[in-house]
Predict the 3D structure of the following.
Amino acid sequence: KAGVTQTPRYLIKTRGQQVTLSCSPISGHRSVSWYQQTPGQGLQFLFEYFSETQRNKGNFPGRFSGRQFSNSRSEMNVSTLELGDSALYLCASSLVGPSGGELFFGEGSRLTVL
Amino acid sequence: QKEVEQDPGPLSVPEGAIVSLNCTYSNSAFQYFMWYRQYSRKGPELLMYTYSSGNKEDGRFTAQVDKSSKYISLFIRDSQPSDSATYLCAMSLRWGGSNYKLTFGKGTLLTVNP
């Protein structure tokens, strides 16, 4: 069965722009989580969506937002990009959520902000 | 003190060596413990998952949890060059109905030399 698909895989933006990243979870998975990965901070939780509702949120500013559609596909948006937003953004899907269960990660979207 | 501490390495070993990877944590409420493996330019994949103190074995991999010492380990026997990757520990706890907290270590970069 197909894995988690993230698009685009690579993108370059300039400060002040906004970006939208897309994630298609494994078929049947209703939970989608987003993480930011940087060498300095490691994997940091952004938010989790379950059945189109944001169920949990990490400690990121309001410039980071997301949504989930009825088919479980999810998008995250970062507005007013800053240099520090350069990172690998990972999407992970699971059947019911990451509370002790297995997360299936996509390959990530690598964002570079110039 | 960070909730989860993991030595970032890098760790370089010869093929066939026994590898020991470790994480310590400060929050005694963590209930579930995981190890993820992340190859370069890929998303993390679940390697081991456990929720109790003691050892869990899967092939060449053994996960060890010591809740009294707040310490988890991953042992790799007969290491292979294909084991070269970043290993991330992760731990989670549930609170409330569907709320959870999943925290990753920063990862240890392992290289197994032929």
Q: What stands out?
A: Residues 103 and 110 of chain B are 21 Å apart (CA to CA).
